UniProtKB/TrEMBL annotation:
Residues 94-211, 225-253 form the Plastid lipid-associated protein/fibrillin conserved domain. GO terms for cellular component: plastid. It is found in: Plastid. This is Plastid lipid-associated protein/fibrillin conserved domain-containing protein. InterPro entries: PAP, PAP/fibrillin_dom. Keywords: Plastid. It comes from the Eukaryota.
Amino acid sequence: MSANVVQSLGCEVGISACSSSGRCPYVPVRQNGFRTFRVRISASPTGFSNAVSSVDALKLAVGSSERRRGNGAIIVAQSALFPFLGRKKKDAQKVKIELFEAIAPLNRGVSATEEDLARVNSIAKELEKLNPTKEPLKSPLLSGKWKLIYTTSNSILKKSRPSFLRPNGPIYQAINTDTLRAQNLESWPFFNQVTANLVPVSSSKVVVNFDFFKIAGLISVKAPGRARGELEVTYLDDDLRVSRGDRGNLFVLVMEDPSYRVPLK
């Protein structure tokens, strides 16, 4: 197993989503607890703001996780009668939009300057303070297939490579908390995969032990014992996950398919 293959799969359980051609991610929007459509983030913050402004304000003001639990009407009523009760959730939505605006033009992080890196990290830290899910490993919100829209991991971004040697399609990460399994999936042009067992060390952090690599989606290779990492979930709601790796890298992901199951082997 070459070092390049290991790096291409992201040993920090990092994954990427926006294509290197500059296509930007979608922002999941839910209505009545169900995903109905997505708003595309434009290549500029202004375009993103215009797109978001066209969405019913209620979808942004009321947290989707509350709606899934059937408390949407209660939250709306509370916010109307006692505005201070809904302030924290409203702030979280505002910070989420700010985060999406900041990362939209950065081509999954490839084109980020030092100033961009500092700004995104600052916004992420602000959002992490508003984390509504204090024990993510015990939450059903964590399970499913996630698409990464931003990372600082060079093993994922491969900035030193020509663009045609970087992953050009979306890259996903799937997690199932009931089986403690994880999977990274690259799409075009490499189609590499890696699966792993998760060992919880706290209610928000796991040790990741990779077990098998699949090269070009066909050749299965047992992972070396040193292929391991750590991952901490620092923010989690229905649609957005922020995670940090053991090397200090930041990962921002959006939910793609909550029903996806990671193969046991």
